[in-house]
């Protein structure tokens, strides 16, 4: 895998993107998207200096996260979260990036209050119409954000999106820009601080950084191609 070299290259690319955008590279964290990767591979990436890891499926997280409990990893849930898996998710994850409905917020609140824990959450916004994608619509984001802010055990910190794949990277830029605009509008409308924008993957993270990403979620460029 060559985790150390891969991470180093990504950091350099983030630094250059920050330079182009007049941003401080210290504002951008790399999250390693570790779905399908073994605990050994995850350890290697941790050794290379990565502290944020993201999993997409609760069952896979239940298998892997306990085997890595000796590492100070911040675990993010970045895949669609089913309500019947929330009871496990609250014990596994530090951040849920894929909050996309009031029903899910309610279930999280219920389970978190039982275990007496607060959870950092991002709202996932769906900016394109593919049926396979999750997330609330841009129109729903204000009401959902207001609702989440009313819940005692949820701490709303930002937004996440998964835009469509484009070969031509300039075509993805408007999606990242749109997420930032939605975040800015929410901050104005609700008078809150929403510092995080989780956007950008292996092929488009530099554009995401230029448009304000604070977390880029990277799988392939760190671990190599996924084998399913
Ligand atoms: C897999 C995944 C990523 C990383 O994808 P790569 O193209 O391998 O970098 C990022 N975000 C989410 C939600 C993912 O499922």
How is this structure best described in words?
- With 228 residues, the protein is an alpha/beta fold.
- It has one domain: Alanine racemase (TIM Barrel).
- Helices cover 41% and strands 17% of the residues.
- The protein contains 9 helices and 8 strands.
- The chain has helices at 3-21, 39-47, 58-64, 86-92, 102-115, 141-149, 173-190, 205-210, 220-223; strands spanning 29-33, 52-55, 74-77, 95-99, 119-124, 154-160, 196-198, 215-218.
- It has an 8-stranded parallel beta sheet.
- Bound molecules: pyridoxal-5'-phosphate.
- Pyridoxal-5'-phosphate (PLP) is lined by residues 33, 35, 56, 78-79, 162, 201-202, 217-221.
Annotation keywords:
single chain, 228 residues, binds pyridoxal-5'-phosphate
Short structural description:
By secondary structure, this protein is an alpha/beta fold. The protein has helices spanning 3-21, 39-47, 58-64, 86-92, 102-115, 141-149, 173-190, 205-210, 220-223, and strands at 29-33, 52-55, 74-77, 95-99, 119-124, 154-160, 196-198, 215-218.
Q: Which structural class should the secondary elements be placed in?
A: alpha/beta
CATH topology: TIM Barrel
Q: Give the tally of β-strands.
A: 8
Round the mean pLDDT to the nearest integer and report it.
97
CATH class bucket:
Alpha Beta
Side by side, the strands of the main sheet go 7-6-5-4-3-2-1-8
Name the CATH superfamily assignment.
Alanine racemase
Counting DSSP H or I runs of 4 or more residues, the number of helices is 9
Radius of gyration, taken over Cα atoms and rounded to an integer in Å: 17 Å
CATH architecture: Alpha-Beta Barrel
| Ligands present | pyridoxal-5'-phosphate
How would you characterize the largest beta sheet?
A: 8 strands, parallel
Distance between the termini: 17 Å
% residues in beta strands: 15-25%
The tally of domains stands at: 1
Low-confidence stretches: none
Q: H/E element string?
A: HEHEHEHEHEHEHEHEH
Helix residue percentage: 40-55%
Backbone shape = globular
